[in-house]
Amino acid sequence: MPTNDPTIAWVLDRATNINPHGDATIDLGTGERRDWAEVARRVDGVASGLNSIDLDRGDRVGVLMLNSARHLELWFAIPVAGMVMNDLNFRLATEELRFICDDSQVKLLFVDETFFAGCPTTPRQRGVDPHPGVGRSRHRRPTRHHCL
């Protein structure tokens, strides 16, 4: 991931080089802490995973999540993988989210389990094993026929 270009990857690389063991994220609910070196390792893992599936450079990846360490990692991992992050507003209605995903041609959608559980057509309910996303989140390809 090292780069001298002023990109979001550069920001993570710089933080990791300057203060690798400094706190990057703190979950106030659980007290879990991650340092910059751990965040960088996780970002590299997610970016590698994104590059190993059927996505191309420049593809749109949607994210429908609450603010969390996982969300921050996706902020870094998606561009590091060469894709474009479409961060979705969870306050929008399902039809508005569906329109945004269709209009921006989102190829992959990361959904926080807060929103995933209420979806009537989740992969688990259709008899398909959901693929693990980041941490406990799930991802799937959105289509017009799936609930967001």
Task: Chart the SSEs and their pairings.
Blueprint (H helix, E strand, L loop, with lengths): L7 H11 L4 E4 L6 E3 H17 L7 E5 L4 H12 L3 E4 L6 H10 L2 E6 L1 H4 L14 E2 L5 E3 L8
Parallel strand pairs: 3-4, 3-5
Antiparallel strand pairs: 1-2, 5-7, 6-7
| Run of helices and strands | HEEHEHEHEHEE
> Could you give the order of strands across the largest sheet?
4-3-5-7-6
Number of helices: 5
Strand content of the residues, in percent?
A: 15-25%
Broad shape: globular
Q: Output mean pLDDT.
A: 80
- Mind summarizing the main beta sheet? 5 strands, mixed
Task: Describe this protein's structure.
There is one protein chain. This protein has five helices and seven strands. The protein has 148 residues and is of the alpha/beta class. Helix 3 (69-80) links the parallel strand 3 and strand 4 (84-87). Helix 2 packs across helix 3 (69-80). The chain is globular. It starts with 7 loop residues before the first helix and ends in an 8-residue tail after the last strand. Mean pLDDT is 80; it is low at 120-148.
Concise summary:
36% of the residues lie in helices and 18% in strands. It is of the alpha/beta class.
What are the defining features of this structure?
five-stranded mixed sheet, 148 residues, globular, alpha/beta
